[in-house]
Amino acid sequence: PKRTVFASTAGIWRMDGDIPRTDGGTGRADGSTEDVALDPWGSASVGDYADLFAEFGIEAFDEVVDDVPAPHYLMRRGVIFGHREYDAVAEAMANDEPFAALSGFMPTGDPHIGHKLVFDELIWHQRQGGDVFGLIADLEAHAARGMSWDEIDEHARSYLLSLLALGFDPEDGELYRQSDNRAVQDLGFELGAKANFSEFEAIYGFDGETNVSHMQSVVTQTADILYPQLVDEPKPTVIPVGPDQDPHVRLTRDLATRVRYFKVTEAFASFELDDDERQLVRTAYDALTPTGNEGDDGSDDVRSAEAAEWLADYEPPAGEAGDALRAAKPSAVETLRAGGKEPLRPRVRFLDRNATEAAFEALIEAVDGEKRVFEGHVDAFELSRAEAESLAREVELAHDGFGFRQPSSIYHRFMTGLTGGKMSSSIPASHISLLDDPEDGYDKVTSATTGGRETAAKQRELGGEADECPVYELYAYLLANDDDGLAAEVYTECVNGERLCGGCKEQAATMMREFLAEHQEKRAEAEAVLADLDIDLDSDRRGTGGEH
């Protein structure tokens, strides 16, 4: 009998309607797990993608995909499984407001089908109306991988040709090399003043043997990520990457806030609270405030000590979020008790982080309505949080500040190697280069490991394991392109035992051969386009490289 596919044995692929999708990885078929280690320069591997949500604060893309206008097939199929604040980009896209996308490529070898995921994501965002940037991370390649400049030039050319061949419009976007972009290097210098070695040690595992240029390349990458906001204006910006690059995103998000003139928070009284304490005080305030009296400065105001007594008896909800609130509860209660009879009145607070004296005075003048001015902050009682954020950025930009928004990011799953295990550029049979001879690409697919059973009879009886099959991934990630029907057909026929591996690989191999042939024809056509761009691919830099 035909089986209705909803969830596979490994829990990696599922059917939503007619579309087979990843679920962000709930584990492996054998129930085993791997430690989550995100190393931008290591051999990328994630045993359980769901661990990334809890350990690093990455959010499930399922939560935002319905808000994306005409989502890309990698989004629809769950290949893009996670995000950080992509909702801001989706909202800008839906409202025809400015947004940007940027990703970089370290030119250490030929571009392969794994890189195509990022190429496609950039091109899709460009076609959705975004300002899109593609960069060659040549400083990183030289410092972190010890690549010679001749090698870097050669590989940089190859990456750019494939990006152009796949549809990137250089007249409606920007391509650059880190080493040639003075604005990026200047910004990196400013951001570096807000970072320190202990932070690099904690995030990247750097130690006394790490060369300084490698550390400098990290700061340059944070500048790359914020660069689109230097061009024209601060705007929602997404960085499409694999999860191994998340350390760069996290560091950049922190640095983006550290260089801001003002920090905007919610406050309730003269004292300061951290985020968890603030949530607890908000809960107490809402519980104790009579309906209709919010914000009134009268006799019904909630006093700090009163809120402390209520909060002392409050039990936060179960789960990780509740655990964090439980940990913050004693300090919140103590702070409220110390506040005594001071009334709690919700307000937004502008904290002076890096503002010049003129900028701080301008902010005070710009805040309309009731306000209170202190030595290091301003409290405003008639502004929403969003209005306050907008005002702070406006004043900052008018006084030579950056006004950065925290960058967003989206994360795609790693492709499985054709030989099983990791896809590695050092194992030619495990991956397909975009420069491979089409016949070689055909042969690699026909020789690939599959998720099939031991015999054709067992395959027909039990069905194949498409969720564990590198060949099926080729269909879902690349070959089916925008055709969800084809991806669903291959998946369903496989798990129902109607499709055998020999025919499936032959179909995929033929499609791969056709893709490579077409792509390489377009690369040849892109040579003329690349030659007209202002990108130096014959650099005269000298150096011995960094780590080897």
Topology of this structure?
Layout: E1 13-16, E2 19-22, H1 50-56, E3 59-60, H2 62-65, H3 73-76, E4 80-84, H4 86-94, E5 100-105, H5 113-127, E6 131-136, H6 138-145, H7 149-165, E7 173-177, H8 182-192, H9 197-204, H10 212-230, E8 237-241, H11 246-258, E9 262-267, H12 275-288, E10 302-303, H13 304-312, H14 320-339, E11 343-344, E12 347-352, H15 357-366, E13 371-373, E14 377-380, H16 385-398, E15 408-412, H17 438-446, H18 456-462, H19 470-479, H20 484-495, H21 501-531
Parallel strand pairs: 5-6, 5-8, 6-7, 8-15
Antiparallel strand pairs: 1-2, 3-4, 4-15, 9-12, 10-11, 12-14, 13-14
Major sheet: 7 strands, mixed
Q: Strand portion, in percent?
A: 5-15%
Number of strands: 15
Radius of gyration: 26 Å
Poorly predicted parts: 1-15, 22-38, 40-46, 295-299
Describe this structure in words.
This protein has 21 helices and 15 strands. With 548 residues, it is of the alpha/beta class. Strands 3-4-15-8-5-6-7 form a seven-stranded mixed sheet, with helices on both faces. α10 crosses α11. The protein is globular and about 80 Å long. The protein starts with 12 loop residues before the first strand and ends in a 17-residue tail after the last helix. The N terminus is likely disordered.
Descriptors:
548 residues; alpha/beta; 21 helices
Concise overview:
By secondary structure, this protein is of the alpha/beta class. It has helices at residues 50-56, 62-65, 73-76, 86-94, 113-127, 138-145, 149-165, 182-192, 197-204, 212-230, 246-258, 275-288, 304-312, 320-339, 357-366, 385-398, 438-446, 456-462, 470-479, 484-495, 501-531; strands at residues 13-16, 19-22, 59-60, 80-84, 100-105, 131-136, 173-177, 237-241, 262-267, 302-303, 343-344, 347-352, 371-373, 377-380, 408-412.
